[in-house]
Amino acid sequence: MKTVTLIPGDGIGPEVTTAAQRLIDATGAKIQWDVCLAGAEVFKQGLPTGVPDETIASIKENRVVLKGPLETPVGFGENSANVTLRKLFETFANIRPVREFPGVKTPYSGRNIDFVIVRENVEDLYAGIEYMQTPGVAETLKLISRKGCEKIVRLAFEVARSEGRKSVHCATKANIMKLSEGMMKRTFEAVAKEYPDIEAHHIIVDNCAHQIVRFPEKFEVIVTTNMNGDILSDLGSGLIGGLGFAPGANLGNGIAIFEAVHGSAPKYAGQNTINPTAVILSGVMMLRYLDLSAEADLIENSLLYTLEQGRVMTRDVVGDANASSTIAFTDELIKNLGQKPTHTFKRDYKHLTI
Description:
Elements: E1 2-7, H1 13-26, E2 31-35, H2 40-44, H3 53-62, E3 64-67, H4 81-88, E4 93-99, E5 114-120, E6 130-134, E7 137-140, H5 146-162, E8 167-172, H6 180-192, E9 199-204, H7 205-214, E10 221-224, H8 226-239, E11 247-251, E12 256-260, H9 277-289, H10 293-309, H11 315-318, H12 326-335
Parallel strand pairs: 1-2, 1-3, 3-12, 5-10, 8-9, 8-10
Antiparallel strand pairs: 4-5, 4-11, 6-7, 11-12
């Protein structure tokens, strides 16, 4: 039996994490949950990190987290609780899959979009080291280390291998920032030699954004620096139906935090209308990380089958008039455990080496 730290989160967080928890439990996965707090309520109690000691202790003990979105209320706290967790546990990699889903109509339907963005997660401008040079000039430090680049680049190639992918693109702005972004490019070119079975391509990041919009099917894995990855991954989710279909994983050395890309959407909290797919798929990523592949496949197959059938869909897909609730959608997924999609490509996954 594996214990997982469960942080329900803020806003819509408890609704979508409950959906994921119910599905995982319904597969018979040998997981027990340690429910912990972080985020808005903790900030309001006066703790500036947003993460109490009890939650930190649970994560240190369990090493695996399924987390809902966390809010940083204006006027409380100094840093995002999300950033606190990433820095505290050194989750250096953010993995964000982008794939087309059946029954989710977009301008890109039928293009077979299926790629993964591997984003460095603790360095770059998002290290948050900034100050005022003068009252009218602000400065933010862009920190890129060789060690950080090597870890994220190597992981990108391992992701490609574990998912049977044939190419990795490295997206940088090395033509302008020749030392910082250039370090990522140079490291990528050096590490690529250790993976002769995988094609390695460098691409300038603005051209990468252009090509994702024009020819998204040409990409399989994209590795990039922190801010570039944040922007490109949101762009990617826009191609396949929005943030409701965008799962994510923050990986470190022996620790992993799984969460959806979307925020806490407080205006929708408690309305039972939100699409829980992003957190559910984050849970699927968690199960694969824990080598519970059979349970992960059960959930993924049920989701793809349910979307193919199109009978029970959430408001972001079919609009308010024909929408099913969060609970009804989850009930349908549980009912369809054991079903398999008939037309959707299913990728084979192997254990990911970190």
